[in-house]
Design brief:
0% strand, mainly alpha
């Protein structure tokens, strides 16, 4: 019993298909180095996004702090002007021969702040 040409061709085709399937499976398998590289890229990408979010947050906070410093400077200037105005009114009242009304009690925090105001 000798194998005919179709049987041999069928066996060779099966072997070739199996070999190609094994080769494809081997080439599709990722190496540990490739997986580590991809993990590193994923972590690096996540860290980059986190850093960008933090930088944006810091920038917003710096902008808010700058606005607050400007507002505090303007308030300080307004308080200085008010102190000058009150002192000049008291001086004017005394020059007119009258006595200015007594000042209302002031909190300790306000008194400490007014001592430090350049007026």
């Amino acid at each position: 019993m000798t194998p005919d040409g179709n049987t041999i061709a069928s066996i060779l085709g099966t072997i070739a298909t199996g070999g190609l399937a094994a080769w494809a499976a081997r080439s599709a398998k990722r190496t540990k180095r490739q997986e580590n590289r991809d993990d590193f890229l994923a972590v690096t990408t996540q860290q980059g996004k986190a850093i960008e979010r933090l930088e944006a947050r810091v920038q917003r906070q710096e902008n808010e702090a700058e606005k607050q410093r400007e507002r505090i400077g303007e308030q300080d200037e307004a308080i200085g002007w008010l102190l000058h105005r009150v002192r000049s009114l008291v001086s004017h009242i005394k020059k007119a021969g009258m006595e200015p009304p007594a000042a209302e009690p002031m909190t300790e925090a306000a008194a400490r702040y007014l001592r430090n105001v350049d007026a």
